[in-house]
Amino acid sequence: NKLDRMGADPWKVLNQARAKLRHQSAAVQVPIGLEEEFEGLVDLVELKALKFEGGSGQEVVTSDVPSNMQDFVMDKRRELIEVVSEVDDQLAEAFLNDEPITANELKAAIRRATVARKFIPVYMGSAFKNKGVQPLLNGVLDYLPCPLEVENIALDQNKSEEKVSLSGTPAGPLVALAFKLEEGRFGQLTYLRIYEGVIRKGDFIQNVNTGKKIKVRPRLNPKSQQGR
């Protein structure tokens, strides 16, 4: 983040993260300019330049990679492929055989490695100027697991905390985690992550820690510093 700030150096940050956290990671983008000259990003998977136009950077404009960045972009794409190949056998085979690797093949390999928690794709941008936010959100969809692809376990309080595998579908009983409480102009807001079931206004839900039942009040859709 903050590639528009003075002294921005994404490669230094990436190397520090690798050294301190000791994880397999690589950039999936490279910036077009830095600091005051930060203009956009190059997608190393699709090999496309992205620029963010409009008053709030909301319009993503795609174009070819700038000619003066071609060599640098290909070096970073090769680095990305090498790092992912170390943790994904399918990509490693294609890489070692010197086969051309398509965007779809690379994207699939990144997803497999990310879901297996063997690789971390690194995104770049400037959140303040809304540059790089849209590709980051697309990356959540492209590379992070769907809730149905991972197993979530709950503890049944009525059966001596017996482990129960959650289906992750709306059809089951409500299982949710209140991960944040906030006092605002609407009173206390409770942020929930729902693992199974659905929640509706007027429903009664049970706090497993206290055993008390709580009536669900109207929901709010948070938007920046306001709630709707």
TrEMBL record:
One of its GO terms (cellular component) is mitochondrion. The keyword Glycoprotein does not apply. One of its GO terms (molecular function) is translation elongation factor activity. The keyword Amino-acid biosynthesis does not apply. Keywords: Elongation factor, Protein biosynthesis. It comes from the Eukaryota. GO terms for biological process: mitochondrial translational elongation. This is Uncharacterized protein. It comes from Aegilops tauschii subsp. strangulata.
